[in-house]
UniProtKB/TrEMBL annotation:
MF (Gene Ontology): protein transmembrane transporter activity
Entry protein name: Sec-independent protein translocase protein TatA
Pfam families per UniProt: TatA_B_E
Any one GO CC term of the record: TAT protein transport complex
Keywords: Cell membrane, Membrane, Protein transport, Translocation, Transmembrane, Transmembrane helix, Transport
UniProt subunit comment: Forms a complex with TatC.
Segments crossing the lipid bilayer: 6-23
Subcellular location: Cell membrane
Region (Disordered): 41-65
Species lineage: Bacteria, Bacillati, Bacillota, Bacilli, Bacillales
Function: Part of the twin-arginine translocation (Tat) system that transports large folded proteins containing a characteristic twin-arginine motif in their signal peptide across membranes. TatA could form the protein-conducting channel of the Tat system.
Recorded family membership: Belongs to the TatA/E family.
Membrane-topology descriptor: Single-pass membrane protein
GO biological process, one term: protein transport by the Tat complex
Name of the encoding gene: tatA
Length: 65
């Protein structure tokens, strides 16, 4: 869905955000969005690594049995 936006659409979204929130709020919103995205990536990475560890331990148990 977001792949179809393109550069002109992104510029339009930024201009609308600038009009709605004003120039003083945009940096705060950007920081909040960035930290949220960072936390989401960290959580996803942790879940994937836990799943891989669980899968590896199951394979080892089957191999030893």
């Amino acid at each position: 869905m977001l792949q179809n936006i393109g550069v002109p659409g992104l510029i339009l979204i930024l201009v609308i955000a600038l009009i709605i929130f004003g120039p003083s709020k945009l940096p705060e919103i950007g920081r909040a969005f960035g930290s949220t995205l960072k936390e989401f990536k960290k959580s996803t990475r942790d879940l994937v690594s836990e799943e891989e560890e669980e899968t590896d331990s199951k394979k080892e148990k089957k191999h030893l049995a």
